[in-house]
Amino acid sequence: MQQSGVQPREPKGIAKERDRQREVRRTFKILREVWLNIGVEKVDMHEGVIVKVLLDSGATGMFMDKRMVAKHGFRLQKLERPIIVRNVDGTNNSREAITHQMKANVYYKGHVERMRMDICDLGKTKVILGMLWLQVHNPEIDWETREVKMTRCLSLCGRVVLKKEEKKVKKGKRVVTLEEERVVR
Fold first, then answer.
1. What domain count does the chain have?
2. Is the pTM of this model over 0.70?
3. Is residue 24 part of a domain?
4. Does residue 144 contact residue 156 with C-beta atoms inside 8 Å?
5. Assigned domain for 72 exists
6. In the predicted model, what is the mean pLDDT of the chain?
């Protein structure tokens, strides 16, 4: 019989083995990522593309890959001072500093906003929406289904019903145009 509040001790070898197994399981656990398909539209031309976006709470801002900018012809604005990119451990990132940003209209399931994104090399990822965006919008995220609902946006966020048109332009390029049909909010 044991007294209340007193736990029997495990032999040291068993406790170490249990902790090691727990640690290994954590190491191999698959982390869930949340990706969204959003419309990104040029502010001045109302031409846009549908792009796969990573929600990343480890990133501090909003970023677009420099190859995507060049491919789709988004207008860049040069920053007064470059932004040094730092890794999680505080060391400088080996890739270039951020020297440009761009403005775009962003659409997701009836949500619309004008956003500035810093331009940098994101590898295979085209757009990252980081902690700043997540804090402002506080979306409902279902981690099992990876569904994202924009139910807690500020009143300054727009909500529109969109009409999507796809046009073929010379040389087989496809342009997606997102047009506002009516304002809901």
1. 1
2. no
3. no
4. no
5. yes
6. 75
